[in-house]
Design goal:
alpha/beta; 4-stranded antiparallel β-sheet; 18 helices; globular; oxidoreductase; NAD binding
């Protein structure tokens, strides 16, 4: 039994097993799990008697079906009784992942009178007189709304606001863990653009920033553009800007490793939706040699008819040679492949046709555009979005520090210069003396990342002439429809 997908901690299970107490019992269990294609991560003895031993066997599996296959394989072993199976991911989510805690003690009437009535009235009047004091005297100075309509959640699609809530909780937890930012999920039971804009505008006084999350294109572009015009706090669409920042940071170091310059390379991007468009616009801003954008209509080029406004812009500003073929043909001779689209579009043989010292970022999750193991046989550097593979390109490298910096600077908008500064900061954290083919980005747990990004964003925010970020979308009101699904 060999799963097509790689085992992951996201499908970790703990199996409580009772087995005959002989010298080979434990070995038979771990061997069985290994032969079933899972990875044993822990084995704990929980009970025993003279004839039997009970153990909790924890392992990573590839998906729910694979987990069932692993359990069945254990059940078929002689002398083994499977008593209970626990899905560790569901256990972690019981009751939700975040909570509100008070920053002040309320132990007596004195403290209550200052934190609430009557003392709080004086603070309210001070803010009424000078609204800018809200940033100093309320949670606004450190609070972000994580807003979604549930229309494009991870790779799951349009699953709605309630089903999106676990993801938004996770995002809020990441904000706190890595940036010290208090974020809160705002899941909206509407997918009407006007309603979303009006709701976010109405709740904005309580927040220092808006993080748009998992909103489908093209609606996400118009929502972001309109909110940027309406609000005096930063609006950041992580699926666009966070992804673009992290990809540019990773590519900066990857090119350092292989000794190529951005101005000399040809890049192929699979997926011209929200993330792909933002990536390409940021690379163009940095002076990339050439890009071929690929989506369901094929390679975007000037000869294509009836393109939506974003694709038309890409057709006019990329693909200098006018390539019109398929994805496999596009990557032939290319220096860099970046995938933010769909799984299993390419094979290792396709990667073999790329230029020498090629770079592959296959970022579709959970299954990348090409098997990273096959890609590594031919490419100099391979990165994915997976935590169980080297060179994980993960937006958590960007958004906590970006918002930390914007909140500290009391920024009123998110700018392209902030994005470029954040990408440089992430790349430089690794250090020229540390980068190699398996280390082109820092670990998401590297404590230097968020402070470095925040400092870079604060410096960029000091330039009040910097233009608002517009490297991922179209003008508000334009009708667009995107093809390949986002990661």
């Amino acid at each position: 039994m060999s799963p097509t997908r790689l085992p992951s901690a996201g499908f970790s299970i703990t199996i409580r097993v009772s087995v005959i107490a002989d010298a080979s019992a434990i070995g038979r269990l771990t061997t069985c799990v290994g032969e079933a294609g899972a990875i044993v991560t822990a084995l704990d003895v929980v009970d025993s008697d003279p004839s039997r031993v009970t153990v909790d066997l924890t392992c990573d599996t590839a998906d729910s079906t694979h987990a069932d296959q692993v359990v069945k394989a254990l059940e078929e072993l002689d002398g083994v009784e499977v008593r209970k199976v626990s899905d560790r991911t569901f256990l972690l989510h019981l009751g939700g992942k975040i909570e509100v805690t008070s920053k002040v003690a309320l132990r007596n009437r004195d403290e209550l009178s200052r934190a609430y009535t009557p003392g709080v009235a004086r603070v309210c009047l001070a803010i009424a007189e000078n609204p800018e004091d809200a940033r100093r005297l309320t949670i606004k100075r450190n609070t972000v709304a994580v807003v979604t309509d549930g229309s494009a959640v991870l790779g799951l699609g349009n699953i709605g606001p309630a089903a999106a809530l676990p993801v938004m909780e996770g995002k809020a937890a990441l904000f706190k863990r890595f940036g010290g930012v208090d974020a809160w999920p705002v899941v909206l039971d509407t997918q009407d653009t006007d309603e979303i804009v009006n709701i976010v505008k109405a709740i904005a006084p309580g927040y220092g920033g808006i993080n748009l999350e998992d909103i489908a294109a093209p609606r996400c572009f118009e929502i972001e553009a309109r909110l940027r015009e309406l609000l005096d706090i930063p609006v950041f669409h992580d699926d666009q800007h966070g992804t673009a920042i992290c990809v540019l940071a990773a590519l900066t170091n990857a090119l350092r490793v292989v000794g190529k310059n951005l101005a000399d390379v040809r890049v192929v991007v699979s997926g011209a939706g929200a993330a792909g468009t933002a990536i390409m616009k940021l690379l163009l801003r940095q002076g990339v040699g050439d890009i071929i954008a690929y989506d369901r209509p094929g390679a975007l080029h000037r000869g294509l008819a009836d393109l939506n406004p974003t694709w038309q812009w890409l057709a006019e500003n990329t693909n200098k040679s006018g390539y019109v073929g398929d994805l496999r043909g596009a990557i032939r001779g290319a220096d860099v492949f970046i995938g933010v689209s769909a799984p299993n579009l390419l094979t290792g043989d396709d990667i073999a046709t790329m230029a020498n010292d090629s770079i592959v970022f296959a970022l579709a999750n959970p299954d990348p555009e090409v098997d990273p193991r096959a890609a590594r046989e031919h490419a100099a550097i391979v990165a994915t979005g997976r935590s169980d593979q080297p060179n994980q390109i993960n937006n958590v490298l960007a958004f906590p520090g970006v918002f930390r910096g914007m909140l500290d600077a009391h920024a009123e908008n998110f700018t392209e210069e902030m994005a470029l500064a954040a990408a440089r900061a992430i790349a430089d954290v690794v250090g020229h003396d540390k980068i190699n083919p398996t280390v082109i980005v820092p670990s998401v747990f590297d404590t230097r990342v968020a402070p470095a990004v925040a400092a870079a964003v604060r410096r960029a925010a000091a330039d009040s002439t910097a233009p608002s970020a517009d490297f991922g979308g179209v003008d508000a009101g334009e009708d667009t429809s995107f093809g390949a699904p986002e990661q």
